[in-house]
Amino acid sequence: MAKQLEDSFQRKFYYLRLSVTDVCNFKCTYCLPDGYQPADQKKPSFLTLDEIHRVTAAFADCGTTKVRITGGEPSLRRDFTDIIRTVASQPGITKVATTTNGYRMAKHVHEWRQAGLTHINVSVDSLDPKMFYQITGENMFHQVMEGIDAAFDAGFEQVKINTVLLKDLNSQELPKFLEWIKTRPIQLRFIELMQTGEMDSLFSKHHVSGVSIRNHLIANGWLLKVKDNNDGPAQVFYHPDYLGEIGLIMPYEKNFCESCNRLRVSAKGKLHLCLFGEDGVELRDLLADDSQQSQLIERIQASLQTKAVSHFLDEGKTGMTPNLASIGG
Ligand code: SAM
Ligand code: SF4
After folding, report:
1. Residue ranges per domain, the chain?
2. How confident is the model at residue 268 (pLDDT cuts 50, 70, 90)?
3. Is the CB of 210 under 6 A from ligand 1?
4. Binding residue per annotation — 24?
5. Radical SAM core domain: from which residue to which, for each copy (predicted)?
6. Could you give the 3-state DSSP secondary structure of residue 67?
């Protein structure tokens, strides 16, 4: 086994977020408001199944235990089930997760589960079908809800929901969301809107901090959960009267990056040490065949030594990330 992934600030990396496509069929106002636009006329070439196998094998060899398959919309890949199977087959990878907009779940989530998917996050920005449409540009609220039911049917004990907090759009829906999770094993995670390179006035119009939700939870008897070493950055709260949990992801809080435990590989095969702020390290030239696995591991290890201490978002930086679909949010 290769050396464990550790940066120069003694942070250890157990968690890989692997993007498998930049393409998406939704038009979320904060991500791809005009829908997916290819960078040039040529058909984009995303990582093949073999390349995905090699890159996850390298990470697994360095101690990665959790891989999240993301995008764009990962389930748009025709070979999505094979991708899950490939990732799940790596020795040492015990958690195989995906983040999806959920539109294909009702039909396919059983098959994904059988292929080895252990965790699923679904993006649901509103429980009001009209507001859902306004935020995502797609009239698929009911289809996504059916998908969530299907996930429970397929045997997922918990489903995580991602909700981007948007002032004046969904920020009044807390009571509705709390009611929804009262009797369902859902971990609902409110994510503060992050400013990206392509975002215009949306950020100043709709960004709202999660602090008021945190205060509300604490005042109403919710308790903070202790974290595991490959857990994400969410502060998770539980309550004895609720089957579900509430997570808060607040990237603008000071010290957010101290607990960073994840690395990213983009759909075009670049290693990103942070969601924000750098151009990425090319890995694709080392993914063509199995003979370059040790060079691949060396490049990942060496690049990690250049990881910065913070994304400096709290100082107003947006870095070079145009939108989260392009790097795998
Ligand atoms: N298409 C899938 C989905 O929406 O679940 C996976 C990719 S999407 C980029 C991953 C997550 O990033 C989603 O939950 C989405 O809501 C979130 N996201 C995208 N842009 C964001 C932004 N600017 N600020 C905060 N969260 C964002
Ligand atoms: Fe697509 Fe996900 Fe971005 Fe929405 S957040 S546009 S579903 S990639």
Report:
1. 15-326
2. very high
3. no
4. yes
5. 8-234
6. strand
Centroid of ligand 2 to alpha carbon of 98 (angstroms): 13
Confidence (pTM):
0.94
Is the domain spanning 15-326 CATH 3.20.20.70? The answer is yes
| Residue 154: pLDDT over 90 | yes
Question: 31 in ligand 2 pocket by Cβ < 6 Å?
Answer: yes
How far apart CA 106 and CA 59 sit, in angstroms, is: 31
CA-nearest residue, atom 23 of ligand 1: 194
Which numbered atom of ligand 1 lies nearest the CA of 73? 1
CA angle 217, 225, 163 (to 5 degrees): 55
CA of 89 to the centre of ligand 2 (A): 27
260 annotated as a binding-site residue = yes
Can you tell me which residue has the tokens 């709709």?
206
CA 149, CA 186: separation in Å to the nearest integer? 11
Confidence of residue 327 (pLDDT cuts 50, 70, 90): low
Residue 317 carries which side chain, given as an amino acid letter?
Answer: K
Across 31-36, average pLDDT: 94
